[in-house]
Amino acid sequence: MTARTPDLSPRNPDWWRQAVIYQVYPRSFADADGDGLGDLKGITQRLTHLAALGVDALWLSPFYPSELADGGYDVADHRDVDPRLGTLDDFDAMAAEAHRLGLKVIVDLVPNHTSHQHVWFQEALRAGPGSAARDRYVFRDGRGPHGELPPTDWQSVFGGSAWQRVPDGQWYLHLFAPEQPDLNWANEEVRTDFRTTLRFWSDRGADGFRVDVAHALAKDLDEPLRDLGAPELSSEAALADFAPGTHPFYDRDEVHEIYRDWRKILDAYTPPRTAVAEAWVPGARRTLYARPDELGQAFNFEYLQAPWDSGELRALITASLADARAAGASATWVLSNHDVVRHASRLMLPPGTDENAWLLSGGHAPGIDEAAGLRRARAATLLMLALPGSSYVYQGEELGLPEVADLPTEVLQDPIWEQTGRVRKGRDGCRVPLPWSTSGPSYGFGPGGAWLPQPERFAQYAVEAQDGREGSTLELYRTALKLRRKLLAGEDLTWADDAPPGVLHFARHDGWRCVTNLSADPVPLPPGEPLLSSAPLAAGGLLGPDTTAWLA
Q1: Is 423 exposed, middle or buried (0-12, 13-18, 19+ CB in 10 A)?
Q2: On the CB side of 102, how many CA atoms lie within 13 Å of its CA?
Q3: Is 398 one of the catalytic residues?
Q4: CA gap 265, 245 in Å, rounded
Q5: pLDDT (tens digit, 9 = 90+) per residue, 272-307?
Q6: Sign of the alpha-carbon dihedral angle for 51, 53, 55, 61
Q7: Is 212 a catalytic residue?
Q8: Is 382 helix (H, G, I), strand (E, B) or coil?
Q9: What DSSP assignment string belongs to 461-524?
Q10: Catalytic residue among 278, 370, 397, 403
Q11: Chain Cα centroid distance, residue 13
Q12: Nearest CA-CA partner of 317 in 518, 532, 103, 451
């Protein structure tokens, strides 16, 4: 029997299983008031772009009150809007317009920490050691004769100690910036407050949630706290030395109790609210977060980090689909986001390249051919969109934007730069505001300038430059997403074992095929009618290097 095209309407509680979700980084998407910072009204004005693109939902990175110590992930109030970005009324208007256009709205939830400006943390500072206010966070006495040493050797993701001392001598935990104190999820008041937050945004029209640092909420805080011995900044590296579920603060088994509790709230809505975990943990552990009685999906960062290699990609895709199937979830695929080098640049870096060293070189060591990078990025996109499951698209990738690796150090905003003693350049290069037009003080981002400088070459990538232009990356995305809706059904694929070396070839339902040539030479296409290709076919109808084709 022919599989049916997935139902993405409000009637279908499983709309997310095969959806394409577009990530909006609000401060860099569109600026309506001319202050150089993107805002909610700017997003609302540009929602027709997303509808025309053909995505199913937009995911909003944090828009909450924040001093921007970490690009908005230092949240001073989880149930309000930063005044520089708008008001709750602006959020309501944006959500209403999105729904009118047939777009779902995903809200970014930041449950691991608050801003140090949050009323709870300010109360904790005033209340002193041993108070109920301090128990909402992780405060501890220091080590040493006078408590002058941090309680443990735990390290912040952004560099340096994960502990910050306060004037009365105690220390508080911050796995990220010092302005982001970690919450104590053993405290029932914390749990109750986030239940309220889930309902608050669900009632205002949020169709789902992206859960930031989902793997770090539960912590082993029993005394004495454990040193790690050889602290690592990344959770993947840190987890390698511990039995699954036993690291002091990453991916502990107890975290799943929190998400089972949340699922009861999310399922109380019609249709149920969706959720996706940002959990930087190995695949077998990651899928636990995606179980139906928990969040339902989890980001597949192993796919994002995979090299441009046919063997490694095939093995990873096969394992990812198997893991998702075992969890009762659908797979997720992502190539770029607000935390990583844009894939139009990253996929061109030689294997083993130190990305931070590359950024510090301004993108010159090694240099990257932007045209070749765009060709590879387009091929990677068509491959991703052909896979079973949900695809997450980062703003600007539909324009083929490269990483802005040559931002001058004096304009950097990412706290990683200062936190690491100006050793790690950070993530600003993928957060540069979008170009909408080919001219103007910010290429149409807003009536004024932009909070991060845009390079002159952004003009050639602007929406205005690509709109309606045959062969442009923008039109490729529009065509692919429209075609995907007609083709996509089921959540399985079948590999073609006779593919030439360096080629990925798989079939979907009804014989629809995807072929990606990752080799250095043109290869013949299998029989079938070409429906779409990421670059024109080579002479003789061959599939050129770094090209993907869909065939009927």
Answers
A1: exposed
A2: 15
A3: no
A4: 25
A5: 999 999 999 988 899 999 999 999 999 998 999 999
A6: negative
A7: yes
A8: helix
A9: HSHHHHTT-TT-HHHHHHHHHHHHHHH--SS--EE-TTPPTTEEEEE-GGG-EEEEE-SSS-BP
A10: 278
A11: 23
A12: 518
